[in-house]
Amino acid sequence: MKVIETEITPFIKNPVHLDMREDSYLSSPYHAKPAYHKHPELQLTLILEGHGKRIIGNEVADFKSGDMVFIGSNVPHVWLSDPVYFEKDSKLKSKVITVYISPAVFQNIFELIEEMDDIKLMVREASKGINIYGKTRSLIADKLIKLSSKTGFEKVVGLLQVLSIIARSAEKRLILEHDTAEDNGQYPDRLIQVLKFMTDNLKRQITLDEVAEIACMTKPSFCRFFKSRTHKKFSQYLEELRINEACKLLIETDHPISDVAHLCGYNSDSHFCKVFKEHMGKSPFRFRSDVPKHSC
């Protein structure tokens, strides 16, 4: 089975993310259908509702409601709902909580703080996949459900507590006997290549021809592919990237509005201000003035 080599962070734009989803069947996030894939982000998955087969590395096992797995960076995996979920008149639902953590963000913390040695060891073990069970699973499930409604620092602290609970618990087992070996059958995720190109070139005009060529697709095929993965049109997604970058520049720099517009790929200040207000509900001037100023 070929492995799609992808990333999650470019989609969520956040190094720590908790996602609760309910669908007719389990699908791989940011893919139109279940896909055997791997990514550098650590992943904790809790099945709230559903049953089927999960493939982690070379192990195929049944999963059902309550199944909880923590996997390390670049461990190939996919959860496949049973065929009954795909039947035409099926009313079955699948519900899952997935946590993604960029290992780069916590690397320095793990290395510098001695009290996190147990978490650091557990993250290494996660290269073989960790199945969590018993009272530990129930405790973490309750915490994840509560954290799904939290934001910011409170959510990050809560997820660190979850990692600590997993690390200290005896109610876990390694799924694989050996680390997952590099698979020569892997191939890069074309969408990640496109998103990186878009992010790196926001200062200039980006055409549909360019991104379709990067993805090795015709323009109509690329448009269908892009929307199936992001649930947004290419032009809409690009505009949101530009506005997000504009917000960052307005908060973090003192650049004039005209410079911000140029740095985000807008040749017309008036057009930039119009689009910005449509997205943010206020002009760039008002947005910047509303940002709290802190004095030393």
Task: Using brief descriptors, characterize the structure shown.
296 residues, Jelly Rolls, Arc Repressor Mutant, subunit A, 6-stranded antiparallel beta sheet, 3-stranded parallel beta sheet, transcription regulation, RmlC-like_jellyroll, transcription, Tscrpt_reg_AraC-type_HTH, DNA-binding
Description:
This protein has 296 residues and is of the alpha+beta class. It folds into 2 domains: 4-174, Sandwich (Jelly Rolls), CATH 2.60.120.10; 190-289, Homeodomain-like (Arc Repressor Mutant, subunit A), CATH 1.10.10. The protein has 12 helices and 12 strands. The chain has helices at residues 9-12, 103-112, 117-125, 134-147, 152-168, 190-200, 208-214, 219-230, 234-252, 257-263, 269-280, 284-289, and strands spanning 4-5, 16-23, 37-38, 42-49, 52-56, 59-63, 68-71, 77-81, 94-101, 130-132, 172-174, 187-188. A 6-stranded antiparallel β-sheet has the order 2-9-4-7-10-11, covered by helices on one side. It has a 3-stranded parallel β-sheet with strand order 3-1-12. Strand 5 (52-56) and strand 6 form a beta hairpin. Helix 3 (117-125) packs across helix 5, helix 4 runs antiparallel to helix 5 (152-168) and helix 7 (208-214) crosses helix 8 (219-230). The model has no long low-confidence stretch (mean pLDDT 86).
